[in-house]
Design brief:
Layout lengths: L3 E11 L3 E4 H5 L6 H8 L3 E4 L6 H16 L6 E5 L10 H8 L6 E5 L5 H14 L5 E9 L17 E12 L8 E9 L7 E3 L12 E3 L1 H22 L9 E4 L4 H11 L10 H4 L6 H11 L8 E8 L3 E8 L1
Parallel strand pairs: 4-5, 4-6, 11-12
Antiparallel strand pairs: 1-7, 2-3, 6-7, 8-13, 9-10, 12-13
Bound molecules: acetyl coenzyme *A.
Length: 323
């Protein structure tokens, strides 16, 4: 019998309406469009309205993904976020209720910018083991709420948004030829906890805190770790980089993407890039980019897609998917 695989049956995304350009940030901050564009590739970001929460973004993205998949319910909702509505309950349960689902399991997962890959890996393993038959994996963030808007070194880098995929259990085939998630690869190394963190939390400060980052150190580790995990994913499937049709990377910074492309010896036109328009939306960035490239027809059924991310912790990971 062919092994069970998790097939992506629908993708959806949502961006808040408010669009903020670099020039607008430069009105209140000692920065410039030129500096931000040159160092990061970011030209603009979407920011949630005051009354828009992470759950609102997640619900909008999830509705679209469910509509594409032609489903009204799933067995499991995994919401990857570092910016939940409340400390508890899980924002995923609010999403579940809004979608009209009253059965199955819904929970949040926290791996910061790697959250979507961690969520995909979690749902995929539940599907492969036969415990569930369908899942919604969502990445949704309102990083605008945890930024220090006076710190030009960090606040220019991030945006808000959400993306979602519906996974369905289908019969797969062996040797990387079947459709669906071929493999997932997760890593973390907590020795780097302090290099990218929010300086507050319920059990440390009883407050939310703001994002702090050692940018250069993060950059250095990102390129090395991402290249390593991509090689690991390819090797696990007996594939080489030229078999990859599209790389959908976490959108942190254009220079990290260029560095990773060089290290992998892959042309940049095989990378789906949204960082220029979305900035870094943490766990939402991969499903946002995936939804865009599937929606505009760049990513086609049967193509091999590589997803990769790195984030606070540090955490990092990759997934290979036959669409
Ligand atoms: N506008 C103008 N000047 C700025 C700004 C800004 N927005 N931010 C920093 N500067 C200044 C600094 O104050 C510094 O000035 P000084 O030399 O007078 O002290 C100068 O620019 C250089 O600062 P660096 O921090 O050394 O600049 P760097 O070239 O390293 O670029 C950046 C900073 C863009 C953050 C870079 O380190 C980077 O891309 N790091 C990766 C981090 C990242 O993308 N994190 C996202 C989260 S992690 C993830 O998702 C993987």
């Amino acid at each position: 019998m062919a092994p069970i695989r998790s097939v992506i049956a629908g993708v959806g995304s949502y961006l808040p309406a408010r669009l903020v350009t670099n020039a607008e940030l430069a009105l209140a901050l000692d920065t410039s469009d030129e500096w931000i564009t040159e160092r990061t590739g970011i030209r603009q970001r979407h920011l949630a309205a005051d009354d828009e929460k992470t759950s609102d973004l997640a619900i909008a993205a999830a509705r679209k993904a469910l509509a594409v998949a032609g489903r009204s319910a799933v067995d499991m909702i995994v919401l990857a976020t570092a910016t939940p509505d409340n400390t508890f309950p899980a924002t995923a349960t609010r999403v579940q209720a809004a979608l009209g689902m009253t059965s199955g399991a819904a929970f949040d997962l926290q791996a910061v910018c790697s959250g979507f890959i961690y969520g995909l890996a979690t749902a995929d393993n539940f599907i492969r083991s036969g415990q569930i038959k369908s899942a919604l994996v969502i990445g949704a963030e309102t990083f605008s709420r945890i930024l220090d808007w006076k710190d030009r070194g960090t606040c220019v880098l991030f945006g808000d948004g959400a993306g979602a995929v519906v996974l369905e259990a289908r019969d797969g085939q062996v040797n990387g030829e079947g459709r669906g998630i071929l493999s997932t690869h997760l890593h973390s190394d907590g020795r780097y906890y302090d290099l990218l963190q929010v300086d507050g939390g319920p059990s440390s400060s009883r407050s939310v805190g703001v994002l702090k980052m050692e940018g250069r150190e993060v950059f250095r580790h990102a390129v090395v770790n991402l290249a390593a995990v991509v090689h690991e994913a390819l090797a696990a499937n007996n594939l080489t980089a030229d078999a990859v049709d599209w790389v959908v990377p976490h959108q942190a910074n254009k220079r990290i993407l260029e560095g990773t492309a060089r290290k992998l010896n892959l042309p940049q036109d095989r990378f789906v890039i949204t960082v220029d328009r979305h900035a870094n939306t943490s766990a939402a960035s991969i499903p946002l980019a995936l939804a865009e490239a599937v929606g505009d027809g760049r990513i086609k059924p049967g193509q091999l897609v590589l997803l990769e991310a790195m984030g606070g912790g540090f955490t990092w990971g990759a997934a290979l998917v036959r669409m």
